[in-house]
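assembly run, all chains below
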Amino acid sequence: MSAPHTGQFCVLLLRRQLLLAMRRPIDIANPLLFFTMVIVLFPLGLGPAPDKLASFAPGVLWITALLSNLLTSDAVFRSDFDDGSLEQLILAPQPLFLSALAYISAHWLTTGLLLALLSPVFALMLNLPGSALITLVVSLLLGTAVLSLLGGIGAALTVGLKRGGMLISLLILPLYMPVLIFGSAAVQAAVTGAPSGPYLAILGAMLSLAIALAPLAIAAGLRISIDA
Amino acid sequence: MSLSAAGTPLLTAQSLGLVRGGRELFCELSVEVHGGQLWHIEGPNGAGKTSLLRILCGLSRYGFEGEVLRSVTPLYLGHQPAVKALLSPRENLQWHVSGEGLYRDERIDIALGRVGLCGYEDVPSHTLSAGQHRRVNLARLFLSSARLWLLDEPFTAIDQQGVNETQSLLASHVDGGGAVVMTSHQSLQVKCKVHTLSLRHGVIA
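ok done. output:
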């Protein structure tokens, strides 16, 4: 029996992670519920004047998306660490950084992708102009993928710690900031009628860089966490 | 050290040394594991058995002295069973993260039958007991084609009959040219020769 090819193995891991997520729907619903709650609370706190809400909307939507991503990134490798699967993954003959990429892809598909697809609904609640909706979705699609990859680095480094939640925030929040700045700027530009393409291009560049480098960092982080 | 086994060793450890918390657990420990050998690592709690096994399988890469050479990919079963509670035993083996092989359903059924989990193939693993979780993990021994097995306390939470069956499996693996390095607090009742590595006294062989 020969070992599966790297590609086969990545697909297998991706399907496994998606099935596991499907079996615990509350984990998929949690970040979306968080997103909903915060968006609902903003008009109550800031006052329901439509103009005011519209001017805050790009920032509010992006900050909330970022925080809900932060909420879930801690759990990417947690259960696999607890039950010993992570040791087996590290010993697998296939390259670990590609396995890590499969894990992160599954995480993004169950968090960032859903959030980006649902975001127009919440954007309308905050009176974001309809012309900015497409930019919002695209910027969230690109941005949450970067956030998932960066969050994976923090998760890999803190998975060995009993309460890594706070530490992971401190570790990766600085890395999240450029994504937030360019993400909300893209939506802001679309609202004011300026071209949002350059901002989206920069988010795309960040994503390319993160896809290339983050899996290596995650793999190294996992090896360190298991070794300690 | 056995001279009967010829060829390149499956696993070579050269002058391993480990210090944990200011205590020297072992030093200048050298061992060569050849096909057809069963090594039993023994010692009291805290003697460094698990640490040694993690060094041998490659999970620990820093913080020790010496060198480990592996000529084959080993199968390592650790303390944790690596069984997902949300997946059924069949799914656990089919989609195992060890990346060892893609197994057909019939082979998985046979392996699960051999570890006494016939009829439990498709129930969620969280309904199984701790011992049954370990049995799902042991089923990997029936599926694996790895020549070198590194087993950390494989008999934990396994009943007496299961222990006997696992021991005969280990013996047949060794007879077939494979090698086993294992830790256990139980004495081994196997037909083949057992090489003992005691972490109190160094190699007795």
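The longest helix of chain A spans residues 197-227.

Chain A has one domain: 6-227.

not gonna interpret more than that til we talk
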